[in-house]
């Protein structure tokens, strides 16, 4: 400490008084000339003072003095003025770096002794031992002073050390057997500080109150302690809040390049990750890089591993591997010379005596690092590239996984295979891991499964684990062996019970690209993951065994291919990749009945009867089904006749029959009452598929689209697509075939039956005259069609990829379209002008769009497993708001998520800030962003729920100082 700090902590009048009191001790103490720092001249002086045998009555009793310092520090914190917004920050819209006089504010507002007290009271507490008086003081700190402490720690750029400091208090609470309530409060505070410190929200200190606190789960101790003291802060609404399992506690953006591999030291204190131009060693408590290797050979590294003693890091780059001595920065020559193909994975043996790698040519190589170990190379057996290797805990065996769909086990001493290869997987195997006790071997494959085997007998566990996600990239056992974590191509992290295969946590969302690697911390409290998005994320998995961590069974767990409103507009039916139908209440987003099960493949099309009595569905399994819309009964069972998938089905307006179109090239009519085929209305030429059907409102005609099946997915060159309108009863052609300029994906009649809209793989949405077959409008394309006076508005704002679905609004004013480019557009049906959009909220292709019967809303569904509901009134208001913002010279802060044409009501930038009129209003946690409804979207249906934000009436910006009162009874 310096003289100034001592004077404030001890309670003396001035630094000069402290200096005077220390003068008799100048023979053993030094006071710096510039910084006035007080230090012992020799280590023998503190040794003497702390030794009771030597210093006798002058002895400085360590525990007692630490207790006094802890007490003084906590009292200083409790007496700090003011207890909220201590530096008078003017606006929550500003980042701390944007506050012009911040340094002056900090200097003038934070008393000299406070930084010492804030930083060191946990250390003093830890050495003070058990004293009952501290239980009350510690509880007071965490229940009343935590947020102020975070303010000062953040403003003085010390917040990253906050987690370690609170962890030391957690340890003290445990050792002193503190009350359970205090232990839970301290644990929650640790989570709260960690999340804040490791995300962009920490760039703005006011958002401790404006963002962090309102989004903290209301059932948690920190929320219970501090939320009653707030007013005018955001109130997150929606089912996502109740369904949220707060797991993501830290996000480190460590690279602009993809990260394929990370490794953790045996004590869990260091994490190694390759970046675009270096290899970094990070302190896991702060996220700070403590060592870097920046030489040329450390660029472009795709696999890393750390030695058991933490002194060496082995890494692989293309055909070459190196070993880095972390202490002296030396790198040794390649332990695997003369390789001809790339190294995919590298690993140290448990005792550090060997390093092994797997290569593209299917070989495994083991190199001895110690004189008493043996090199064995190459180990041959795999027929395709080796993707992953793992030493057994005892170091006697090595397992390898390969693209040849097998897992092999090798004897490390002899290089011979142990037993037969495991061949259960039906696709590439990407990851292999031993359980900590070495008794089991787990492997993950592109066949969407994790297989767990008994290593000794080779028998599979009674129930293999199955992951219903694409491309599982990495797996890891927990230190106890009770759980297995997986990182997958769908960006999510999941944790399974290693014995039963039951999912116990997840999917954990946060990564924005493929999750390449997962590792448990040695204490099983945390899970680390890395991704192609360039981040390392840390997840709280401490309470995996607790019942409350079991996931809510999702209602939508896979891609949604089709939707349809009931004709009352009160319900909506959806069909999914998981072979089920769901019926929803469109006001609440809740399920009306249990999922409808029967189809054996993806449900491709659904429809409601005009009487609302029936629901029709068709599937990739080649069948149709008719369901009772009230009870969910499958009335006839599978209706068979088509010889291929059935992409489209429609119920007639008189409720008497169903039209279906199939990939077998036929259009068929079925009787609703009997489920029997009435007639095959049309058969296309060989290799043609029917893609869409629709009855005319007058019930007399049926329109359908078809094309050559080789054109699916073909975006270049000529394509064959046509539309026909035929007599519903005779099949005679009324209009067509209409050459529709590409493979037609979707068609629909207007409510008056005079027009037909089509969507195709050539991107434009086209509107046709049903009587003449002539094109009236080409939305989003200036091709000489009718566009009205604003034809140039239909160029760069059109869809950027295939149009999968189109729909006419019942009032005839609008046409909606959904695309592979993940957006939806709403067009003027008269002139083809783009009215609203592209509307981007979905994170995967939009498969279907439908208007509500009153034309007030549009629903869209997507491969991302969500159904979103958009308000046309909000769309119109957003456009008006955009025009007002533009006229005022307003500008967005680099939004990367478009909501509608122009700036719209608000936008979400790339790191989670909600931006309104150019100002940061609130920061949204990354796990909630996929559930956030986007204006003009009203709400969504998703397995993890939806999040709705109301930005009206908030005490933010220059009013943020009104949002919090430090005293308990502030707003009572």
Automatic annotation (TrEMBL):
Keyword presence, Metal-binding: no
InterPro entries: WD40/YVTN_repeat-like_dom_sf, WD40_PAC1, WD40_repeat_CS, WD40_repeat_dom_sf, WD40_rpt
Stored SMART domains: WD40 (SM00320)
WD repeat start-end pairs: 379-420, 422-463, 465-506, 508-549, 553-594, 596-637, 639-680, 744-778, 796-837, 839-880
Matches recorded under PROSITE patterns: WD_REPEATS_1, WD_REPEATS_2, WD_REPEATS_REGION
Keywords attached to this entry: Repeat, WD repeat
PANTHER family linked: TRANSCRIPTION INITIATION FACTOR TFIID, TRANSCRIPTION INITIATION FACTOR TFIID SUBUNIT 5
Protein name as catalogued: Vegetative incompatibility protein HET-E-1
The organism of origin for this protein: Rhizoctonia solani
